[in-house]
Amino acid sequence: MLPPARGPRMTTPIPLDAIERLYKSATQKVWFRLIPVLMFAYVLNFLDRTNIALAKTRLDADLGISAAAFGFGAGLFFIAYCVLEIPSNLMLHKFGARRWISRIVISWGLISTLTLFVQGETSFYIMRFLLGVAEAGFYPGMLFYFTLWFAARDRAVAVGMLLVAPQIATVFGSPLGGAIMTLDGALGLYGWQWLLLLEGIPTILFGFFLWFYLPNGPKDARWLTEDEKEALLAKTTVVSEEKHSVRQALGSVFSSGVLLSIAVIYFVTQLCVYGITFFMPSIVEASGVSGTLAIGAISGLPAVGALIGVLIYPRLFRQYGNPIRFVAVAMVGAAISTFVAANSGHVVSLIALAVMQFFVTGTAPVLWSVAMSRISGVQSAAGLAMINSIGLLGGFFGPNLFGIAESRTGDPASAIALLTIAAIVALVIVVVLRQLLRRNPPVTTVAAVVAETSNTDATTATS
């Protein structure tokens, strides 16, 4: 048997190869049993969050919701989401992942479905705000959940796989949504109402499935052996983890220069992602493309770059390390690609936006990995939610920025040039983060102590 999870109680050195072997065996099961389920949940999450983008022009025609009102309503989701992120993640830490994640999925599926009853701008604002309330804490909750199952070196790749989900939702969800909207007029419903109905109900059903399927952590996983559970705990549990009250945890994360710097960089990535995501169908339509199916299919193309990014970038990071270098390269790439997109024809602009998505989405797992390696316990729940809250304000300002720009210029792509400036600002913050990381080393896990003890014993034996 392996040592208990708390490092200070270990009295007998345990062979490191035993921990590594059992950890590898356990994580293979995690990849098979948990990751596909969580990815599917995130696919549904992204579909229900962003499918309204396909309905933008129809909402204007059917209900009189203008571009500026649409952008404001889309952004209201993120205000509610951001305000409630931290409380939601603290509740997950208290009540467990199974109950809380399931509750989130069921409630957002219900609100998304009920959005089909909106009658104008005011009801649209209310339902988008309520959707943010329902979804709050889902993504940072899954990030916190990952800290229970993966060692620090594997978290960037795990988060990268999770981020495959929204790219799948965009690449395949856009044409799927376009096809659903061709039901316009069937049974007296608009096409966008069918879209919300047919993508909302499966989410509710899946939420009930999660209630019975998800374990709260390794200790509750019936598909792991006892040795595998202890190996996971050894690789993920922090030695002599300091117990924080909620107030102390909040104080520590909001005063952390590392976490705040990561949050600002993440804000820029989300500004880019959601500004483009919500207005890509309008940009495509303004280029002369017609038909909901064609617009939906082309709108999903930039997400191919994001898909490649989340698959490749975290793996390169795991192999070569040096997070600052990877984040800096990503911000330079984002600045260049958005500049090209703002000053080129339609085809080149589309390709450049895919390149931008490669960099800004691909670097997100690296940022999360760095944050996860410096916090634990309730501090981790609060810190990850804080970063996501600040970052997702980009989800509010991005659609608003594009909506205001389109209202003033008549061109939905007119705000792309501003993303170049945002990426340059993020690059400056990367320089600050580099200095902060030097003064704030990662936390130490039980397995790291075992490795250090083994190395010390080996040195002593040969001397």
What's the N-to-C terminus distance?
30 Å
CATH architecture: Up-down Bundle
Could you give a short account of the major beta sheet? none
* Class by alpha and beta content: mainly alpha
Number of separate domains: 1
The proportion of residues forming helix, as a percent range, comes to: over 70%
Shape field:
globular
Average pLDDT over all residues: 83
pLDDT below 50 for ≥5 consecutive residues: which ranges? Answer: 1-13, 446-463
Helical segment count: 21
Radius of gyration: 23 Å
Sketch the topology as an H/E string, one letter per element.
HHHHHHHHHHHHHHHHHHHHH
Q: State the CATH class.
A: Mainly Alpha
- Write down the oligomeric state: single chain
Please tally the β strands and state the result: 0
* Beta-strand content: under 5%
Q: In CATH terms, what is the fold-level topology? A: Growth Hormone, Chain: A
List the helices and strands and how they pair.
Elements: H1 16-33, H2 35-50, H3 56-63, H4 67-95, H5 97-114, H6 121-135, H7 138-147, H8 152-162, H9 164-180, H10 191-213, H11 226-236, H12 246-254, H13 257-286, H14 292-299, H15 302-320, H16 323-342, H17 346-362, H18 364-372, H19 377-409, H20 416-439, H21 446-462
Helix pairs in contact: 1-11, 2-5, 2-9, 2-10, 4-5, 4-6, 4-7, 4-19, 5-6, 5-7, 5-10, 7-19, 8-15, 8-18, 9-14, 9-15, 12-19, 13-14, 13-17, 13-18, 13-19, 13-20, 15-17, 16-17, 16-20
